[in-house]
């Protein structure tokens, strides 16, 4: 009887930040600049990797895939944030919320898996340089990328199917910038145990296994670097994986600050700002890091502008 008397909701209100008009205009302008910069930067990386022969290597192939993931995640989040900032919040129906959540899970999952694949590539390049060409073949690289995207597309879909059976009966206010799993769980009025269980299982292929691969790869890389007697040679070897290590550090720091640090001790606004780190800032920073720290990409950029 109690369930029959409940009024189920099929739309939510994304609260966003409660800011003054001037601050909202400033935030909108800043986000627009970041969005344009992110799209242009990542498209530049994809174009250079596709057209420059010097960048036709496994490492840059994986970087291009990471750029695709970065474009998808900010394009999934930013348009809704523009609307939130202009209107001091927005109403989103259940289907659009679920679609945004699905794309968000795909992109974050693919980024974790791609970072793991890239760390393995650096491990082979540094620890097994004589066998690098025979191990990291074009066929293997394509298989790794296909497997990454298949896992990223299929496993979050199971979570989406489960959330379709969850009832939401109010309040329908999501105190966040986008449809994130945690805020949705908080406002559900039916049993969320299946959702939490599915998130627990999803953490293994998307968090635990990639983290183990990344950690194991860099432990072996550090060991190999320490065995090199020349300081100059050490620096050259380390420079080949420094860009990837920087991207991994930024991504993990932003993710851990949101999902591991107890959120009860921090305000909702702080939690929202931390969420912006891996949904908006990281996609902007990634192409900048690779552009400045990769000599091959800098040379490809120079050749492109000279020919133009």
Average residue-wise pLDDT: 86
Radius of gyration: 21 Å
Note the overall shape.
globular
Q: What share of the residues lie within helices?
A: over 70%
The strand line-up of the biggest sheet is: 2-1-3
Estimate the strand proportion: under 5%
Q: Determine the number of helices (DSSP H or I, runs of at least 4 residues).
A: 11
The count of DSSP E runs of length 2 or more, i.e. the number of strands, is 3
Order of helices and strands: HEHHEHHHEHHHHH
Stretches with pLDDT under 50, minimum 5 residues: none
Main beta-sheet strand count, sense and barrel state: 3 strands, mixed
Structural class: mainly alpha
Termini separation = 71 Å
Key phrases:
single chain, 308 residues, mainly alpha
Protein model, in words:
The chain is mainly alpha-helical and 308 residues long. Helix content is 77%, strand content 3%. It is built from eleven helices and three strands. It has helices at residues 2-5, 21-51, 58-87, 94-127, 132-135, 138-163, 181-187, 193-226, 231-259, 268-293, 295-307, and strands spanning 11-14, 90-93, 173-174. Strands 2-1-3 form a three-stranded mixed beta sheet. α3 runs antiparallel to α10 (268-293). The chain starts with a helix and ends with a helix. The mean pLDDT is 86.
């Amino acid at each position: 009887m109690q369930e029959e008397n409940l009024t189920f909701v099929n739309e939510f209100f994304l609260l966003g930040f409660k800011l003054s008009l001037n601050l909202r205009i400033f935030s909108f302008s800043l986000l627009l600049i970041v969005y344009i910069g992110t799209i242009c930067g990542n498209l530049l990386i994809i174009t250079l990797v596709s057209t420059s022969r010097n960048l036709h290597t496994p490492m840059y192939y994986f970087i291009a895939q990471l750029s695709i993931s970065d474009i998808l995640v900010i394009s999934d989040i930013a348009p809704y944030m523009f609307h939130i900032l202009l209107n001091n919040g927005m109403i989103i129906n259940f289907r659009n919320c679920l679609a945004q959540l699905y794309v968000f899970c795909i992109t974050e999952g693919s980024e974790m898996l791609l970072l793991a694949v890239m760390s393995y590539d650096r491990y082979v390049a540094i620890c097994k340089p004589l066998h690098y060409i025979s191990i990291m073949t074009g066929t293997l690289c394509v298989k790794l990328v296909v497997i990454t995207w298949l896992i990223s597309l299929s496993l979050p879909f199971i979570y989406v199917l489960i959330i379709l059976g969850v009832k939401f009966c109010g309040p329908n206010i999501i105190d966040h910038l986008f449809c994130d799993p945690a805020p949705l769980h908080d406002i559900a009025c039916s049993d969320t145990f299946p959702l939490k269980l599915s998130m627990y299982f999803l953490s293994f292929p998307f968090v635990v296994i990639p983290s183990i691969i990344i950690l194991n790869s860099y432990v072996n890389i550090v060991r190999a670097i320490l065995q090199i007697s020349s300081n100059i040679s050490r620096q050259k070897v380390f420079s080949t994986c420094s860009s990837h290590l920087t991207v991994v550090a930024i991504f993990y720091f932003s993710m851990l600050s949101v999902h591991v640090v107890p959120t009860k001790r921090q305000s909702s606004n702080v939690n929202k700002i931390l969420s912006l780190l891996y949904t908006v800032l990281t996609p902007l920073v990634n192409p900048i890091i690779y552009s400045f720290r990769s000599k091959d990409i800098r040379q490809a950029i120079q050749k492109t502008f000279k020919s133009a």
